[in-house]
Amino acid sequence: MGDPQAPFETVRGVLDHHGLLEHGRLRADVQLVSMGDHFDWGPPSDRKRATDDAIALVKWLASHPPEQVIMLAGNHDLARVGELYPFADDAAFEAAWAMAMGAYQDGKPDPEASRRFVERYPHVPDAECLARDFSCYSAAQRELVTGLLRSGRLVLAHAHAGLLLVHAGVTEEDFALVGAVPRDAQEAAASLNAFLRQRVQAWKEGPLALTPLHQPGSLTGGVARGVLFHRPAVPSADPQFHGPPRRRFDPRGLPAAFPQAIGHIRDKKCRELLGDWADAEPAEDGVLRALQIDGEQVRYARGTPADARLYFLDAGMNHGPAAGYQLFDLDRRELLQPTSKVAISGT
Predict the structure, then answer these.
(1) pTM of the model
(2) What digits encode the pLDDT tens for the residues 80-103?
(3) What are 38-54's pLDDT values in tens digits?
(4) Longest CA pairwise span in the chain (Å)
(5) Residue 64 in contact with residue 25, Cβ under 8 Å?
(6) For a Cys-Cys bond, which of 2, 38, 120, 286 suits 324, CB 3.0-4.6 Å?
(7) What's the rounded Cα separation, in Å, for the pair 10 and 8?
(8) Residue 282 pLDDT exceeds 80
(9) The domain that contains 173 carries what CATH number?
(10) What is the number of domains present in the chain?
């Protein structure tokens, strides 16, 4: 389920539209992969609902057997034990959020107020990050994510039928940071999950450290970088390509031995970053897309071609009707048809 940053009701509406629910639970013959980013959605007026709904959604997903629901970690999930970890309680976060909103009013940063904010809260990169991106946080979320990490329910990767599912994509250079470049999707998922498991086991206090694969945002490090955050783009001399870890990556650096499916990025942003590699269609929410690579040639378009190197499954769940949100049939690597009976499905 790609980036369920939406009301719990909407998430259930998407699943129900595709015939995947029975008596308020997933059908017994359905396996669901949630692609990460279960927190932070909506305008400031929805903060309370978004904060509480995220907890309800994550608990509902985790209440299913681990072999039925696979929960991938996204950058918003791990921010609860990363950038946001120093906020010991809700009152501390609310004070910081109010200060961030004062420094970032109507999408326009106030330079002096922003300076005061980062001096007070150097563990986040800027006021905009807290005012907009991580606005729906609570200490209960941190405890929930911590428990899911320690129990092994929140993972970095999942492999299915030769396809690697990760939140934002992993290049050959990224894999080399934690060992050899894997030969197949199963080996890739095992490597990534072993890395996370080792780091969680060694984690005693403070933010969870996932370097060199992931660098949380901070005043000193800037906005987050790495495999939970970076996005494919036409390469340039932009510092965002510097790394690893990176904020942008050349998709031709993805392993050729197996395809990947990711969340994290909607159609509009893909078209902005991929430039001439994208077709001429207008951006649209609700739809699945894919990127094909043939040597140096790259093509991005809607659809799920069998030879895709990268499938894009984040279709902006909170930006359209549940009935219009496409899901991905992992067995067939094609659009899941509403009410169809399938063994494996995800978004």
Answers:
(1) 0.95
(2) 999 999 999 999 999 999 999 999
(3) 999 999 999 999 999 99
(4) 57
(5) yes
(6) 286
(7) 5
(8) yes
(9) 3.60.21
(10) 1
Per the structure, the complete domain to which residue 334 belongs is given by 8-84+134-289+299-346
Rounded distance, CA 41 to CA 136, Å?
A: 7
The C-alpha atoms of residue 199 and residue 235 are separated, in whole angstroms, by 31
Token pair recorded at residue 286: 């609700």
